[in-house]
From TrEMBL:
<comment type="function">
    <text>Catalyzes the aldol cleavage of 4-hydroxy-4-methyl-2-oxoglutarate (HMG) into 2 molecules of pyruvate. Also contains a secondary oxaloacetate (OAA) decarboxylase activity due to the common pyruvate enolate transition state formed following C-C bond cleavage in the retro-aldol and decarboxylation reactions.</text>
</comment>
<comment type="subunit">
    <text>Homotrimer.</text>
</comment>
<dbReference type="GO" id="GO:0046872">
    <property type="term" value="F:metal ion binding"/>
</dbReference>
<comment type="similarity">
    <text>Belongs to the class II aldolase/RraA-like family.</text>
</comment>
<dbReference type="InterPro" id="IPR005493">
    <property type="entry name" value="RraA/RraA-like"/>
</dbReference>
<dbReference type="GO" id="GO:0051252">
    <property type="term" value="P:regulation of RNA metabolic process"/>
</dbReference>
<feature type="binding site">
    <location>
        <position position="97"/>
    </location>
    <ligand>
        <name>substrate</name>
    </ligand>
</feature>
<keyword id="KW-0456">Lyase</keyword>
<dbReference type="InterPro" id="IPR036704">
    <property type="entry name" value="RraA/RraA-like_sf"/>
</dbReference>
<feature type="binding site">
    <location>
        <position position="98"/>
    </location>
    <ligand>
        <name>Mg(2+)</name>
    </ligand>
</feature>
<dbReference type="GO" id="GO:0008948">
    <property type="term" value="F:oxaloacetate decarboxylase activity"/>
</dbReference>
<keyword id="KW-0460">Magnesium</keyword>
<dbReference type="Pfam" id="PF03737">
    <property type="entry name" value="RraA-like"/>
</dbReference>
<dbReference type="GO" id="GO:0008428">
    <property type="term" value="F:ribonuclease inhibitor activity"/>
</dbReference>
<dbReference type="InterPro" id="IPR010203">
    <property type="entry name" value="RraA"/>
</dbReference>
<feature type="binding site">
    <location>
        <begin position="75"/>
        <end position="78"/>
    </location>
    <ligand>
        <name>substrate</name>
    </ligand>
</feature>
<protein>
    <recommendedName>
        <fullName>4-hydroxy-4-methyl-2-oxoglutarate aldolase</fullName>
        <ecNumber>4.1.1.112</ecNumber>
        <ecNumber>4.1.3.17</ecNumber>
    </recommendedName>
</protein>
Length: 162
């Protein structure tokens, strides 16, 4: 995997979009990248569970949880399933839980924060649609690059140095 350094990406590719700083690394990999797939949901992680149970093929799941601070949309079991199914990372515009285990899970995860309460399971939400948060609209098929400096979005894969 090439080294992901988002400041260098911004320097080399000034047209990439940068998500406003608000998310923090909480997974076992600090840097990750891949093509985007999306979930839009609010306090119901049914579609997140559905997505991580499918082959990830190196993609990054971007979850627009509406910025809710009232429950977690991802925990240790769904993160482990994402690893098993080949996802490169998960971005959660919302909260996660089981943080100590997530920190040791071999996948990139960024989220707004942590919350111990699980979400509802009503089967609500949408998949594979453009989502907007942090000042950027993110669409399925775009490419996401993330590290401890931030998250950038490109319309196509970027050439990175190894």
């Amino acid at each position: 995997m090439p080294t992901i350094i988002t400041p260098d990406i911004c320097d080399a590719y000034p047209d990439v979009k940068v998500i406003e700083p608000s998310l923090a690394n909480v997974g076992g990999h600090d840097a990750f990248y891949g093509p985007v797939r999306t979930v839009k949901c609010f306090e119901d992680n049914s579609r997140v569970k559905e997505a991580v149970n499918e082959p990830g093929d190196g993609a990054v799941l971007v979850v627009d949880g509406g910025g809710s601070w009232r429950c977690a949309l991802l925990g240790d079991m769904l993160a482990a399933k994402a690893v098993d199914n080949g996802w490169a990372g998960i971005i959660v515009y919302g909260c996660v839980r089981d943080i100590d285990i997530l920190n040791e899970t071999p996948i990139g995860i960024q989220a707004l924060g942590t919350h111990p309460r699980k979400s509802e399971k009503r089967g609500e939400g949408q998949r594979d649609i453009p989502v907007t948060f942090g000042g950027v609209t993110i669409a399925p098929g775009q490419w996401l690059y993330a590290d401890n400096n931030g998250i950038v979005i490109a319309h196509e894969p970027l050439t990175l140095d190894d």
